[in-house]
TrEMBL record:
Family under the similarity heading: Belongs to the ABC-4 integral membrane protein family.
Keyword set includes DNA-binding: no
Official protein name in the record: Putative ABC transporter (ATP-binding protein)
Compartment list: Cell membrane
Organism: Syntrophaceticus schinkii
Top-level lineage group: Bacteria
Transmembrane annotation, as ranges: 29-56, 68-91
Pfam families on file: FtsX
GO-annotated molecular function: ATP binding; transmembrane transporter activity
Length: 110
């Protein structure tokens, strides 16, 4: 996840620079990349839940096992996905918020 966000920050340097030059605050850019990281991990988590449940249903045909999907399981896995997005998205998001608007390099001024 972190690598994906680093690539996103690198490829969008120009956009970040333009936004900063037009007056966007570092906190706004940080929030943008954090929300993006959370959405990516949340959507991936939902896909994973669906695929996992589908595979367990398929296996349940051959084995006398009944897969169970409860709201608690969905909630816990969603919370874990969101936490992963925040944890592994914070460093690339901070890097994006510190980019210098003029030359697109990392700025030491915050």
């Amino acid at each position: 996840m972190m690598n994906i966000m680093y690539v996103s920050v690198t490829e969008r340097r120009r956009e970040i620079g333009i936004r900063r030059a037009l007056g966007a605050k570092p906190a706004t850019i940080l929030l943008q990349f954090l929300v993006e990281a959370v959405l990516i991990t949340f959507c991936g988590g939902l896909i994973g839940i669906g695929v996992g449940f589908g595979i367990s249903k398929l296996i349940g045909i051959f084995i006398e096992l009944k897969p169970v999907m409860t709201a608690g399981i969905m909630l816990q896995s969603s919370i874990i996905c969101i936490a992963v997005g925040i944890i592994f998205g914070i460093i690339p998001a901070r890097r994006a918020s510190r980019l210098d608007p003029i030359d697109g390099h990392l700025s030491l001024i915050v």
